[in-house]
Structure formats: structure tokens, C-alpha cells
Amino acid sequence: MKDDKKSLNEILDIYQDLESKIIESDGAVDDEMENLLNVNELDLKNKLDGYQGFIKYLEGQISYLKSMESHFAKRRKTLENSIKKCKDSMTRALSLTDNTKVKTSNYNFSLCKTESWSVDSSSLSNEIKDDLIDKGIAKNILKISLTDLKLEYKNTERTEIPEWIKISKDNYIRVS
């Protein structure tokens, strides 16, 4: 296998083999091992460059796809607005002519009424809210702002942070 065709896992395996050899030789690193370390480090650098190049390509693809999503979303919205305008015109025409039903060779049109309901949540008392929640008509949803939560507890000792807050740390790579 050619050096430039090694996978990242193969490069890491070589590092582990070299580590074992160094341990077996009580930490002594001879010229051959030094050379192998240098070659493997170069392979690792080349592989990381390759991965980053691929990441840049994928980011370009993502950017292109996002722009296409935006383009098609605008196009879809334009078509939806056209449909709404056509339906509004048809509804207005039937309303102005007092026709509630019209039959053509292709379709049957009927003028209908719809009813729209809404709730002014700000005018509800806590008692009404609790009653609606108890009846299953409403939900009491807690949405915590993680940004505000971090600000609130950022200077608190880790041992003093409430147990319901879970903090995890992950490694990531920064490329510059």
C-alpha cells in the first residue's frame, strides 16, 4: 500500500505500533524509529489536509444547497400566493354575483363560510390556564434559555451547580 493511500485508522495503528516498540525498548528511540515517526507524522499531516479539503468541499455543497433551498422556497411561496389570489378572485366573483353554487363541465364550485378562532392568552387568569391544562386543552410548556442559564451560573463553583443542570465537554478541532 502506498503511503499516500493510508487511512486515518491505519496511520493511528502505526502510531500505536511505534508506541509499543518504544515501550519494548525501554523508551529508547533509534534512528529507524525516529524516521518512522517522521514519515507517519507527515502521513498524518497529509491526511488531515485531505480531510479539511473534503470538509471545505462539503461546506461549499451545503452553501449551494442552502441557496437552492432559499430559491425554491421563494418560488414555492410565489406559487402559493398565486393560488391564493386566484381562489380569492373566484370567491369574490361568486360573492358579488350572489352565486353559492356554480357547475361547469369540469368542476363544481360552492361558496362556503369558514370560522376562525383565536385566544388572547394575556387575558387569561392563572385559574383559567390551570383549568385548560387540567382538561387537556392546553399545555404548560417550560422553555429554558440555555444562554441565560449559562450567564446565571457561569461564576458558580461546579459543586454548587444544581444537579438538574448537565454539563458535558467534548473535543473539537479548530482549523486556522
Summarize the structure in words.
By secondary structure, the chain is mainly alpha-helical. A two-stranded antiparallel ribbon has the order 1-2. The mean pLDDT is 91. It is elongated and about 100 Å long. The chain starts with 7 loop residues before the first helix and ends in a 23-residue tail after the last helix. The chain has helices spanning 8-24, 31-96, 126-134, 146-153, and strands at residues 101-103, 108-110. Helix 1 (8-24) runs antiparallel to helix 2 (31-96). Strand 1 and strand 2 (108-110) form a beta hairpin. The protein has one domain (3-160). It has 4 helices and 2 strands, in the order ααββαα.
Based on secondary structure, the structural category is mainly alpha
Instruction: Summarize the biggest pleated sheet.
Output: 2 strands, antiparallel
End-to-end C-alpha gap: 31 Å
* Rg over alpha carbons: 33 Å
Helicity level, as a percent range? 55-70%
Q: List the uncertain runs.
A: none
Query: What's the β-strand tally?
Result: 2
Q: What is the string of helix and strand elements?
A: HHEEHH
| Total discrete domains | 1
Oligomer type = single chain
Give the amount of beta strand, in percent.
under 5%
Provide tags for this entry.
4 helices; mainly alpha; two-stranded antiparallel ribbon; 176 residues
